[in-house]
Amino acid sequence: MRIMGLDYGDKTIGVAVSDEMLWTAQGLEVIRRQKNEEQDMNRLKQIVKEYEVTEIVVGLPKNMNGSIGPRGEICMEFAERLREILSLPVHLWDERLTTVSATRTLIEADVSRKKRKLVIDKMAAALILQNFLDSKTKR
């Protein structure tokens, strides 16, 4: 039983999965989005099956004032399609500043700009998922 975290973007989908104890999140991969969304969904189905995912968390990009803009609406629609196609619970999680935090961490680790581009989305997905996992342990 694992939870998958997704950072859904225009060009990529960052993917992270939890450990089986639901304590930690690990960045898994970055899916380069295809023109045909079915291909993206097929890859996500494979990951769900391979890692025995039972829930999904999708980052919800809110504006700094807490409102939801056009990008947030797109992520909400994506989350709904995931629910329908994968028949799993899908949670939306406030992702404000996760990409900023991931970028800062990579810069502090002296990762080159070119390499950061390759991993930033899966790292953002891991931060989204880790924040979600941490919120569940506080209850």
TrEMBL record:
Chain ranges of the YqgF/RNase H-like domain: 1-102
Primary location recorded for the protein, binned into one broad class: cytoplasm
A GO CC term attached to the entry: cytosol
Pfam families xrefs: RuvX (PF03652)
GO biological process: rRNA 5'-end processing
EC number(s) from the headed UniProt entry: 3.1.-.-
Family: Belongs to the YqgF HJR family.
Protein name from the UniProt record: Putative pre-16S rRNA nuclease
Native species: Paenibacillus aurantius
This protein's encoding gene: ruvX
